[in-house]
Amino acid sequence: MELGPDIAAIVTGGASGLGHATASALRAAGVKVALFDKNEEIGPDAAAAIGATYCAVDVMDQASVDAGFASARAANGQERILVNCAGGSFGPHKTVARSKETGAIEPYPIDKYIKTIELNLIASFRCIVGAAAGMMTLEPLAGGERGAIVNTASVAGEEGQMGQVAYASAKAGVIGMTLPIARDLMSEGIRINTILPGIFDTPLLARAKPQVKAALAASVPFPKRLGAAPEYAALAVEMIRNGYFNGEDVRLDGAIRMQPR
């Protein structure tokens, strides 16, 4: 897809981290961008800084997502690009744990598991459905393409660590839905790919102590550092630009393979 001012994009989780870096890269290519983010404290300024449109959206709520699509399309027109970066974790917990203090058996809180699946997997699918339905109303570009979608999974989706069962299974679901969606949408000229980031220097790690971040960086085979958000953005943009990139799940991780803990 040739990027420029006649193309509109939506980036979920676009107010910070990987999402904001991707939105910035798309804006640098001239694309009209709308940021979906529920953080209204930073969202408007993050959008203004790059000349994007901010839409206060909770991706876990269907009505909020529908309103976000309507707002983004009113500002920029029907999007041809969706990048799903919204996601996160509600904390570690083993499937069943044993208290070190009392020895009591502690099953995984099912409500926390469900919320993790809803945020990372169902919310991504919700936005894919909304964007793809809109893209199908557009006339194809050169080569028959109507749109391109990029999802964010995680290396945890393939190598989840102890205490990561909810997050790992949610991200495995994102990986698993990529090829079936590519097949579902192939006759409409809509491509979809997924990035599996390794350990990236994002706001989620900002609160970590320097020694913790140094240890994480040292665990990466090469280069021995945390991933940078613009590196994620560069791959996302390539997936959008390259019309033969479809149905793929691509690791971006410095060759790391996660250990059990």
Automatic annotation (TrEMBL):
Q: Name one GO molecular function term.
A: oxidoreductase activity
| Keyword Hydrolase included in the entry's annotation | no
Cite the entry's keywords alphabetically: Oxidoreductase
Q: What's the domain of life for this entry?
A: Bacteria
Family designation: Belongs to the short-chain dehydrogenases/reductases (SDR) family.
PANTHER family found in the cross-reference section: 17-BETA-HYDROXYSTEROID DEHYDROGENASE 14-RELATED, SHORT-CHAIN DEHYDROGENASE/REDUCTASE
Q: What is this protein called?
A: SDR family NAD(P)-dependent oxidoreductase
Q: Provide the organism lineage as a comma list.
A: Bacteria, Pseudomonadati, Pseudomonadota, Alphaproteobacteria, Sphingomonadales
